[in-house]
Amino acid sequence: MKAYRVWKLSVGVIVKCRLSNEPGYGVSLVTKTCKTLAYRAHSAARAFVLAALAGVAIAGAAVAQTTPSTWERIHSEKVLRVAGTNSELWAFKEIAPSDMPGAVEASGARWRGIGPNLGKILADALNVKLEIVDTTWGTAVAGLQANQFDIIFGFDPTPPRAAAVDFVPKELFWYGPGVLVRENVDVSSWKAIEDQKLEVGVPAASSIEYVFTKHAPNAKLAKFHNFSEMIAAFQTGRLGAIATTNTSATLIGVKFPNTKVVMPEGPKVLFAAGTGIRKEVDPRWRSFLTTAIMYYNQNGTIQQLLSDVFAHRGVETSKVPPILKPD
Q: pTM of this prediction?
């Protein structure tokens, strides 16, 4: 009667050996021989699989290298594409012509804001043309991933965003919460805001809402998904105050006489105004931006761009929020 021993290997190879009862061929000897054959077959199969996988990896790398990195595309096409979010402070189109400083001609429109101006400075430094691509904050991540633009300014880094896109490690500047309120109302501290029993408008699901919930838990908050509706509620007196960033609050305050913008005293809260870029292996674009933003921050360029935006809206120089830095 013939007996067999079968080994099924992890790489999908099966070795089948007959166990002989003929003289001189004990089972233990045959078993040892079969195991040796099995080991050799397994090694050969494993080497084949690894070689195949290596071939796939090399082919994948070759395909990946055919797509230019951001740095390579900018220099080959001679164009830097900056996201235009159509929001005050960061990037907005000029409707009424003005000879005030801070206007940038790009993509068939006249743009203002930190984004277009800093983009123009970077484009000039790279000796390329500036292009501004219309987008929104809500579609910014998808726009970067789809290679619609190369950079977006004022895009604050958060863990969920960082899972999808990359950020320049140097912030443009820091900003804090600002409360827009009537001149005679005391909101000098988080406790004062609670004591006033004001109804304070905050952007829903924002960092500002989180900060007020944490530091003024007894304040009455009215949450708005639409920023314009929140401003209208303040204008008609339905809100006693508006809570937003100190920069935005200062811009909004221009429309309302006899108001002031206050950064509440108490626990210091600051947010980093960030710069979003695509995730990619080539480090040159990220490295260039890190150095450039640090340079323009330290030499006062970004502060001047901020001042130009406020001057265009008629804000006195003395009221322009300074570049903030954490302690």
A: 0.69
